[in-house]
Amino acid sequence: MANVCVSLAGISLRNPTVLVAGIMGTNAELLCRVGKCGAGAVTGISCSLEPRSGAVNPCLLELGGALLNCVGLANPGVEAYCIELSKAVGASDVPVFGSVAGSSVEEFGLLAERVAAAGVVAVELNLGAHSCFGRRVWNLEEIGKVVEGVKSRVKKPVFVKLAPSLGLVDNAMVAEAAGADAITAVHSFGPGMVIDVESGTPVLSSRAGGMSGPAIKPLALKCVYDVCSSVEIPVIGTGGVSTGRDALEMIMAGATAVGIGSGVYYRGASVFSRVENEIKSFMNARGFSSLEEIRGLALK
Amino acid sequence: MSGFSESGMLPRTARIRELINESPRVKTFVLDARIIAKPGQYAMVWIPGVDEKPMSISRADPLTFTVANRGPFTERLFGFKIGDNLYFRGPFGNGFVIRAVKNVLLVGGGYGVAPLRFLAETALQKRMVPTVVIGARTASDVVLEEAFKELKVKTFVATDDGTAGIKGSCVDVACSLMDKEKFNAVYSCGPEKMMVALAAECGKRGVKCQLSLERFIKCGIGVCGQCACGGLRVCHDGPVFDSRVLKGVDDFGKRTRDASGVAHDL
Questions:
Q1: Same structural domain for residues B45 and B72?
Q2: Any idea what the Cα angle at residue B11 is, between residues B7 and B13, rounded to 5°?
């Protein structure tokens, strides 16, 4: 029988699927539900210091194979967020990660410290947001400072989520050098736009939004391949994964774990156990006994 | 451009062909369009450049919304005139599960009666016998009474101050009806605390009950988690739930969340 357990920055996962930040993870009950749906680990939504309402509606569109969103980091603020995370940590069957989105180096440190204290096993730094949400796009130097700042205050594993920008590989290398324990690659693509031709108005309230879903998987896969070729730390391959085959591609590109977000829409909340089973069927049919045997095959 | 928005996920536009003032704060918008939907499902109504809000479907053909004016978005919507275009996407969510049973009781509180009108029409088509209880604070807040009577649905009205129908809550009236007559199912939409009480009364009598919930809905497809009621996504798992599903849900009847996710007591 194929063994699909993985060790991600010292954290044991029963399978490589990870619920990404920003999907379903608004409260403890939903995080626990995703764990029961088979996820190897779950990540809460990204939090900021104060509550954020995000963009008004429409903030998410399905385009036939892709989602376009400008949810815009809606979150109840770090205080209420940590209460939910603590409850999730106590009740979840699987490891719970926290995600933070600061507006400065200092704020990232503060948020990461508070989220770590809520009992999560790892903290993810959301450094991949789009400028269309009125948020900062982090440059190479800033990414290094944010990661160093957080690492000096948090003893738990720190993951860095990056945008699929031209500087992705450099950003990943800087994050690694600054002490990151893993890279989550990649955040949504874009920004992209849809215009309603009857009214001549962009449909998303922020006019543009990040693109995710099966349509972007080949783009995300190449990003993951490039990052895995350049860093030693583990990578959570993320972007358009909704099937076992998608996950296997990410792992063959070198990913240790696989993020799933939009897949929750395309295949339902049970996408996690389905992906796990599809990976196992493939491995059993091909005689692979562990994911180590296939990880990075495409890099060779 | 019909092919462009067949999925229902991108906006369609339709002309307003009729407006009906139901009460001082509730208005019905009848559109020159139809939608393929189930009772209890909702559409997202969009005013470009303003906002988009979930509205339960009160008729599918012609597509009709019965809307309460309760915030800046509906304030804008109430300014729309006959002939103006309205944009909508949908349908979204899961509606009422209508089993081919005979006697069904529909209990609506305030503007919560909106989806029950669509439900009553569908029940009649399935040769079921619906009875409706419309609850309101006072006589002028009673909505859709005429619409149900036109459908020849047995209609009861309950007002808190007794200015119309029976003095008392719609739950009281529903209880006395259930005690007199055998109902195979109860369907409800309205203030959540009212539905908590109704579900308890149905439970005592062994009557199955489905409730339509309201939360702050954003994505409409179950991904953003903003509409969480405990571990349920109201936008996608609901908005209609069997009362047995809601039994262990701590948020039900107690807490709702705003646009940021901060919890507030109901």
A1: yes
A2: 120
Amino acid at A277: N
User: What pTM was estimated for this model as a whole?
Assistant: 0.95
Cβ contact A26:A51 at 8 Å: no
Tell me the C-alpha distance between B193 and B215, whole Å: 14
The single-letter code of the amino acid at A58 is P
Do B229 and B134 lie in one domain? The reply is yes
Q: Is A1 inside a domain boundary? A: no
- What's the CA gap between B246 and B204, in Å, rounded? 16
End-to-end CA distance of chain B: 42
The verdict on whether A82 is a catalytic residue reads no
Answer yes or no: do B73 and B188 share one domain. Answer: no
Domain end (from B92, B124, B140):
B92
pLDDT category at B3 given cuts 50, 70, 90 is: very low
What is the CB-side half-sphere exposure of residue B77 using CA atoms within 13 A?
30
pLDDT reported for residue B131: 98
Q: Which CATH number does the domain housing residue A211 bear?
A: 3.20.20.70
Tens digits of residue pLDDT in A118-136: 999 999 999 987 655 556 7
pLDDT-based confidence at residue B107 (cuts at 50, 70, 90): very high
Contact residues of A toward B, CB < 8 A = 22-27, 29-30, 32-33, 45, 51-54, 56-64, 67, 69, 71, 74-77, 80, 194, 196-199, 201, 203, 205, 261-262, 264-265, 269
Tell me the count of A-B CB pairs closer than 8 A. 131
